[in-house]
Amino acid sequence: MDYQSGQHGGAVEPADTAAPPQRLSRSPEEAALAAQRRFRQALIEAGLLIPTGVDGLYGRSADFEAIADGLNAAIGALGADQQAEVMRFPPAMARQDFEASEYLKSFPQLAGTVHSFCGSDRDHHRLLARLDAGEEWADQQRPTRVVLTPAACYPIYPVMAARGPLPPQGRVVDVLSYCFRHEPSVDPARMQLFRMREYVRLGTAEQVAAFRAQWIERGSALAQQLALPWQLDLANDPFFGRGGKIVADGQREQKLKFELLIPIHDDAPPTACMSFNYHKDHFAEVWPLRTADGARAHTGCVGFGIDRLILALLRHHGFALARWPSPVRELLGLRHV
Ligand code: AMP
Ligand code: ZN
Which residue's C-alpha comes closest to atom 4 of ligand 1? Predict the structure, then answer.
């Protein structure tokens, strides 16, 4: 497809040149990397993403942000009947809550912690001397009480637990945050800082199951309205290490995670753009989250990857927003863009 016009036309051709002769002999992994690089380069050349020199860390253009605003409004409209409490946190949370959440048990490789200089004048001189000499200086930094948010819903569980038992109908919370995951990649859809919009359900197991089923329907309907190809699949999180494989298998067996996948790169598997998660009573083991009758509360969430959805839209409808299908422009409030 031609990124610039949004016309569908079979296989994606490289934006710059014709296919190199060695293309046929590439492994699937190499082909995927090449497709990801090609798409990223096209996004950068079009000014949609602004490179920083770090894989996975990008600035966004006005058009990119207009689509983000449109998606957030459309998701908000989908959730208008949820009586959700809106909460917005900065992209960081208390280290104490992060430690309690057991994130480090499951995903130490993804976590990002905030460190600062806490030394004396002498330490400062040493820091500057090391900088001048091009030597490593970061080991002089000390951990602060702040860590970067790994998923938009993480900051809310301790807040909810502190309020006491849930009301009989439970609660729904609407969150949106930039999230950090240390997974540098040439794939523009795998960022280190990206936005996640979530609805989070806290209540009984039945309430959470009904919520998740409803949002699988709604998420699929949204992909349809956005005129994007999609498929739903059972999924697992990238649990760390050898033990992690067993946890991931268990997560699949219990069907705790589903993803809505959209093809973004021709030569690579489709990309998870939404996820539908059931945490069972994990967060009630960590914090005193209780239902109205004193039982451990169950939780679940639906997560919309805002930046991935934008990339999927750009991939399928082209870089010229004015030429996007009218119903999609209408839905996203892009009539005047
Ligand atoms: P997860 O908690 O992994 O299910 O993430 C929720 C959603 O956030 C995913 O379905 C993606 O759309 C999005 N997401 C996760 N990781 C990334 C990333 N590295 N870059 C961009 N979006 C991401
Ligand atoms: Zn969540």
Answer: 275
